[in-house]
Amino acid sequence: MNKLLLLKQYILSKYLRRFESRKTIQVYQNKKIEKHLAFVLTHSPFYRNYYQDHQLEWESLPVISKREMMEHFDEINTVGISKEEAFQLAVKAEKSRDFSPKINTVSIGLSSGTSGNRGLFLVSEKESAMWAGEVLAKLLPGSLMKEQKIAFFLRANNNLYESTKSRKISFHFFDLVEDLKTHQNRLHELKPTIIIAPPSMLRMIAEWKENNIIDITPKKIISVAEVLEDVDKAFIEEIFQQTLHQVYQATEGFLATTCSHGVLHMNEDIIAIQKEYLDEEKGIFVPIITDFTRRTQPLIRYRLNDVLIERQTPCPCGSLFLALERIDGRCDDIFYGVHEQTGEQHMLFPDFIRRAVMLSYEDILEYKVTQKDLFLIDIKLKVKNENSMAEAKVKQELEKLWKEKLLVLPQITFTKYDLITSERKRKRIENVIKEKAKHETI
């Protein structure tokens, strides 16, 4: 690890890189992307061929998705690593739980594949140092010189995460595959100053603290990997008596992090964001990102599968970076209803479902809403006091939502809440209709 480069990136991000207006951000991004494109077109056969018939105004270049990224993995990356070679190493690491091996000096990562399509990512040592500097600048409470013990709960470790270690910072990987008793003992013994984990795991840790199973007082808690639901956020903040922060980190990079006010801001000093609006009036969009810092596996005009909601008012922190109201979920988990008069399908964003459930009954602790068919929705509820009123209230609110949109009412069923924390990402709002059925004409 190049510690000097890490320190340089830390200082740049935390103290020196400042923008006076949205215009200065755009000028900065354009300059960086122009230089980045010159490198990519020289070293990536895929992008060189893909862009050969296009003017190189980056804002209008063709978009790619994870499908193209995986199909053309060998030609996209600039270090000559084959998809087969990378995948074999990543799978071996998953099985052995030893995530340290590299290909030459390049770290290999494997995404969890919640959208049904696992992704590979490559990161060089230089990129690891730059990533670590950015992460430490934006996440650490206080100075880099203060001692920190970081407990990091994830499905898989990676050299990228280990790169944040230093003499003052100790990184402790908690493997979500391990049993919960092991986690309890390690947390109680370690007493971390920072905890980074999926919200489903954070909620469980909060329950352990509430029940005096563990005695910890972290300075900062950060939610990652899953959509952070309001019901979990409120509970975790109440137990730990502090603002719960978030990181929007994916195979595609370090995308966003929360400010001191707990508002998510896109990291527009390292990536450029374009919006493919699903509902412009409500600020609901799918992001198309261009990362101008990653050369090993370039991401130019890359369409994510996430639904984001932009904040409508300026953030009190004063940052000019794009602020988000929330990460709403995956495009795959948008619900669909059939219009009563036209028979056309209409989208119902996860936030609509979320709000209907949470506004229906105040004693709801946890829930899971699954669209199994265009006309069938299954709900699992966990409430403070077992009460049939909860089911009736939730059904009433959801039917009200469908009626407001003039959609044919679906059948709503209730089944026992039997979900437990595991290494798989938790979704509270999930659409499991097969892709063909989602879009076929009614």
Automatic annotation (TrEMBL):
It comes from the Bacteria. This is Adenylate cyclase. It comes from Metabacillus halosaccharovorans. InterPro entries: ANL_N_sf (IPR042099), CapK_Type1_Caps_Biosynth (IPR053158), CHP02304_F390_synth-rel (IPR012685).
